[in-house]
Amino acid sequence: MKIISFCLYGTAPLYYKGLIENIHIISKKLPDFFTYVYYGSDITEDKITNLRSLSDKIVLIATNKLGAGNMIDRLNPIKLDDTEIFFCRDADSRINDRDLWCINKFIESEKSVHCIRDSFWHKSKLMGGILGFKVKKIENLEKIREDLSKYYEYCENPEYGDDEHFLGNKIYPLIKNDLYLQTSITAFNGEEYNLIDYNNDGVNFVGNVIEFGDENKEVPKFNYYNFSVKDQVNWLISQKQFQLASHIGKTVRWDIETGTIDALFIANYYADDLQECRRLMSMYEYSSITDHVVDNCNFMFTMLKKHGYKIIGTTNLSDEPKYNEIMIYYGTFPVTHLYFPITNKVYRNAGHFNKVTHDIVKYDDCWNNLDKIYILNLEEREDRYIETMCELCKVDAPLNKVFHYKAKKTPGDGGPYVGATQNHIDVMNDIVNEGYINSLILEDDIVFSPNISQIKKDITEFFDSDYLYDICFLSASRFHKKEPHNDLLIKSKQICTTSSAYFLSNKTIQSVRDCVMEGMDLLKKTNNANLYCIDRYWSKLQEDDRVFIFKRKMAYQRPNYSNIKDTIAAYLD
């Protein structure tokens, strides 16, 4: 026997009228099905008589109950030995064409239990009003029958919704492996589902409540599309149903706003839908880009690698990516949607260079002989670090060779000059320990001059000439004595240099470090920065004529607030 089962209780007309409409639908479109109605003790005899007259395939069963306890009784056909297949439905909904399409798909399937979740609000694992069974195929049939018989032990005084709690907690675990779930919106963790590939006009979703308006005209109460896409996608992400979340983003209209884009991006990232991720990122042209968005979208580069792309970093805007490359151009770029790999060309601020793992980093050949670039940066002054990274882009320096030394303020014990000198000692120790041949040390207020081609030419000549040098300054104080050396370099004879930008060599690093450490000890003992801080004391190295300054000075210290001097410094040297 084939059965459609309802319950009926209470006095609200939409249930009684709705049941009548459903009986007509069943008679017309499911003529081989019987209609079972489990009715409560508050249903009057005239209504019973009228229902009985509507069809010769209607079976009316009195429950002798009031209220929500009637809802569980519509599952009773599962206890009948002659039941082949049956479906439970709500009287205030309609078995419409979308529902019939779902029913037929279930009948064609090999599964024994049917569940439709066709609304944002369908968050129960099993719902008594959208449920079906191929009774003779249910593996745990006897256990299900036994549990249903004990319903009132579970719910002594049933209230609205208790039947769904019971179905979810007691019945669902018994049938979940043989569940034919149809949904385009809601699936729990681990569930397999079948998309409802039937026209959705917003009000024909399965389970919609149908009210009666003027002249008894049927009026759907809810619209399928009136829900928060962001909330639903985030819920599906929590259930690890990434493909379904992706499907929602592609099939439901939603307002372009950061939270929704971000949620859909996460879902599509885990669904491994590269094309959709890139489409979503393009929408940030019209929405807020938060730090969270930037950090999340950095995962795209890992995804692109998985799909066979190489990530190339460069500071040269004339570089062109190949078909399988993502070219990230670094410089003084603002954060926009172009920060993300929407196309093969990405434009990023150099301060975010280390947020991406690159396969190749391109830079000018003049830097080939340089092993490391140290940026000495007070930890709280991230602004200066970003500015210095952008300055390195101007000269096409190897950003992948940069070490960000994060200095901390030195409490007492000699004050800021001790701290500043210690920073230089620390990086010199690192150079020695790592065995670097040539290194560049930069303080975080350096600015390169605009004659970029000359800078590159001079650096190339410097390394090609393989000078023996203690220190070679890219920027230098405009004060004090200097002496000629050749067309590239001059000798420093200054009583005070700077320490803002200089090359060091492994050939002489030990003597330079020893000198600075000696000055440090004296600085701590005397607190006399005018004699013993780094840019004063290492002047003694000039005696061997191996402390140089580039003749065409390449850089100067940016005019800005000095944490050491607690004032604005604007020497332009």
Automatic annotation (TrEMBL):
Name of the protein this chain belongs to: Glycosyltransferase
Give the source species: viral metagenome
